[in-house]
Amino acid sequence: MTIDERRRAVGSRIAATRSERGMSLSELARRAGIGKGSLSEIESGRRNPTLDTLYAIAGPLGVPLTALLGEEAGTEGSGDHLRARVLHVEHHPDGATTEVVWLTVLPGATRVSPAHGPGVTEYILVVQGELTAGPVGAESTAASGDSITWRSDVEHSYRSGDEPVHAVLTIRSPGT
C-alpha cells in the first residue's frame, strides 16, 4: 500500500467510525482537541495524521488506535516522540480487543497520552533501554527485561532517557 493509499484508508476509517457514532465533524474535532479543518483534511485523505493525532481521535470515538491506523501487521505510525508498528490485533468473542505493538520511544522524549476508553489496560515489556511510564503522577521505571502494567483510562506518559527505548506494548480494551 502506498503512503497516499494508507493516508486515504486512515481518513476513511475515521470518517466511517465518526458517522457510526453519530458524531459531527465539529464535535469530534472539539473532543479530540484538533482543528475542524485539520480533521476534515485527515478524513478526506489530504493530510497525514501523526500518531499523537490518531490517539487524540481514537479516545472520543471509543475505539482502539488500530481501528483507525489499521490492523495489518507491519502498519506503522509515528509522532514527535515515538514510533509504533502493529505486530498483531486480536478481536475476542466478548468484544474485547488486544493490540500488540512494537514501540520505540525516541531519546530524551516524553509522550503524554490522553485517557483511553473505560477499562483499557496497557502492559509494556522493555526490550532495550529504560522507560518511565504509567498514569501521570504515578509512573514507574522499567529497564531491559522489566515490565509495567497500568489502567490507561487516565492520562498517562512514556519517558525515555538519553537512549531510545524499544518495547512491546500490549493494549487490552474490554468489550462493550
From TrEMBL:
An MF annotation (GO) of this entry: DNA binding
Domain of life: Bacteria
Keyword Chloroplast applies: no
InterPro entries: Cro/C1-type_HTH, Cupin_2, Lambda_DNA-bd_dom_sf, RmlC-like_jellyroll, RmlC_Cupin_sf, TransReg_Diox_bact_type
Keywords per UniProt: DNA-binding
Keyword Cell inner membrane attached: no
Entry-linked SMART domains: HTH_XRE
Any one of the GO CC terms: cytosol
Start and end residues of each HTH cro/C1-type domain: 14-68
Protein name per its UniProtKB record: Helix-turn-helix domain-containing protein
Source species taxonomy: Bacteria, Bacillati, Actinomycetota, Actinomycetes, Mycobacteriales
